[in-house]
Amino acid sequence: MAEQHQCTGGEHPTNAPGITLCHTCTDKLRGLLRDVPDVWANLAVTAARLDVGTSTLGTTGHSTPSEPCNFDALENADQLAAVLQGWLDHMQPTKKTQTPAATAANLFTLMPQIRTQDWAGDLMRELRESLNACRRATDRTTERITLGPCMHTECPGTLTARLGDHTGKCDWCRSPFNVKAYQLWLISESWHVATFLPRIIRALKAGGHAKVNTSKVDQWVYRGKLEPVACDVGSKRSLYTAADVLRVYLETPTGKREVSTPEQMGMVA
Fold first, then answer.
1. Pseudo-torsion of CA 81, 47, 33, 126, nearest 10°?
2. Does the pTM of the predicted model rise above 0.90?
3. Do the beta carbons of residue 42 and residue 138 sit within 8 Å?
4. What's the gap between Cα 115 and its chain centre?
5. Rounded distance between C-alpha atoms, residue 180 and residue 168, angstroms
6. 185 and 102, same structural domain?
7. What is the pLDDT of residue 175?
8. Mean pLDDT estimate for the chain
């Protein structure tokens, strides 16, 4: 009886010597790699926007947005990038790419070689788990996002916009608003959200809200312009708020050119 070669993607034979991933599992892996660009794009939108779910009703009776930066999406994005680059390093240790989409494309072209590796099934499982985590972190269930209550005092409506649009409207009074400017203003008011500086920097840059980098923000900390609001007990690292980082940024020449107030959005009654 001929020796059966087991597929590393599941408990079934590959029916081919030297092949560690059967045709069915290979097609599944190709499908996962094809999904990377769209999932990555969704992550970028979710991490950069404010539509990350709603909290309980406030004193105004409106449903209000939760944290202004989706740090869960950022963490899952980092993990997806690490998974893809880590497996690519197994095949091409010197091959570095800039985006997970490019890394996935490289892995796709290497499929004939991947199918002969003992770790082929592990790659498929890790990528599937990472993509599923990314999908759970994103919230693009509809083509509309909700950004909170209308800024007109007497209006009971909610500000909504289509994904990717620069302007949105109140669903009640139909008043227009600048999506990016409104997001920027909400972040400037988010004194309750404290986290590590690298996360804040990535979120502000991902949303196009602030042209900042780590070295510049470190200078603000060193000069006393930016101070921590708390300390993480487990890591002993300082915690900051996105509102504080944005406040210091808006005091710079570059930041002063940014739209950051309701008045500048044409949304004041």
1. 60
2. no
3. yes
4. 31
5. 10
6. no
7. 86
8. 77
Within-domain flag for 50: yes
Measured at the CA of 85, the angle between CA 105 and CA 20, to 5 degrees, comes to: 75
pLDDT at 70: 65
Helix (H, G, I), strand (E, B) or coil at 16: coil
Q: Identify the domain containing residue 238 by its residue range.
A: 177-265
In Å, how far are 176, 185, 255 from 84, measured between CA atoms? 41, 35, 35
Half-sphere exposure of 72 (CA within 13 A, CB side): 14
Can you tell me the distance from the alpha carbon of 191 to that of 250, in angstroms, rounded to the nearest whole number? 15
d(CA 149, CA 62): 6
Instruction: Quote the CA–CA distance of 73 and 80 in Å, as a whole number.
Output: 10
Q: Is residue 7 part of a domain?
A: no
Q: Is the pLDDT of residue 141 over 80?
A: no
User: 219, exposed or middle or buried, with CB in 10 Å at 0-12, 13-18, 19+?
Assistant: exposed
